[in-house]
Amino acid sequence: MKERIEELRSGFSLALSAATDDAALEALRVEYLGKKGHVAELMKGLRDVEDKKAAGQLINTLKCDVEAAIAEAKEIMRRAAIDRKVRSAKKYNPTLEGGAELGSYHPITLATREVEEIFISMGFTIENYNEIVNDYQCFEALNIPKHHPARDMQDTYYLDNGQLLKTHTSAAQNAIMKKYGAPLRAIFPGRCFRNESTDACHENTFFQMEGMMIDENISISNLIYFMKTMLSEVFKRDVKVRLRPGFFPFVEPGFELDINCEICGGEGCPSCKNSGWLELCPCGMIHPNVLREGGIDTEKYTGFAFGLGLTRLAMMKYGVKDIRDFNSGSLKALSQFKSI
Ligand code: PHE
């Protein structure tokens, strides 16, 4: 038995020094320590040995030594692999010459900032809100119950868990009313999503800027004043606008505020669907149901809300003829805004 153990020991150290990868080590482990391995075979052989205790101890030491040697060899290999990886990785060179071209702001960013500045000067705060919302925020809280036909115009992308990509920035109205209560003046720009067939003036992903003003005695005149002031500031001149009745369940009365198409000067072009006017800012007096749902006392307060089409505004301001350019990632189109 003793000789057999010695023989196995030297066999093992030879095989171990020849093993160059994990697979070889594993094979060696199975050969020695596996169910049908050498150690198991020695244990079986114990039956025929006289001094079982001494022989058993020898087998056990062999088993422990083999285990330890294999573990050590594995660790050495693991470290060597990390070492190789580190050595072959490209080194960061802090002295690398500059010369990278400067980027430029996206036109939507520029338009957002400009409108934000204007509203800040009129006492509004800026709020940020999620792109993923739930049905309550996007519809229910806005007086659009399930199965209401107004939902048809705002089909969107639904997640498996029932959440959805917001179809309009109005989805934040409820949360913001609950956060601040009345009186309230806030704007909240955001990316919106709709299931839309795309063309020169429609996109499935676009930006809006929502605004809300809630206080005592707020009326349609306040709404028109704020809209006209903002647009004249953005376009740096008196802008022609028209107000049409518009239906949105969360405002009453509701309007569509159109501006004269800046691209064709009102003659008609693909960007304005040949009408000379562009729907830019749906708006209206906030529906009492919506105020109530936001925890506002409707006996005391009224308010207006608007949903400025930021993407459309950027088109008008910078003369972008095709809305699809914004999300195209085309540097030819987008890098023109470098100097602005
Ligand atoms: N959320 C509406 C839309 O995207 C626009 C809107 C906002 C209308 C606020 C009225 C008041 O269609």
Q: Could you characterize what this model shows?
A:
- There is one protein chain.
- Helix content is 40%, strand content 18%.
- The chain is of the alpha+beta class and 340 residues long.
- The protein has 2 domains: 2-88, no CATH class; 107-334, Bira Bifunctional Protein, Domain 2 (BirA Bifunctional Protein, domain 2).
- Helix 1 (2-18) packs parallel to helix 4 (52-88), helix 2 packs antiparallel against helix 4 (52-88) and helix 5 packs across helix 10.
- The chain is elongated and about 110 Å long.
- The mean pLDDT is 90.
- The site of phenylalanine (PHE) has 11 residues, from strand 7, strand 8 and strand 9.
In short:
This protein is of the alpha+beta class and 340 residues long. The protein is built from eleven helices and nine strands. It has a seven-stranded mixed beta sheet, with helices on both faces. The protein has a two-stranded antiparallel sheet with strand order 2-3.
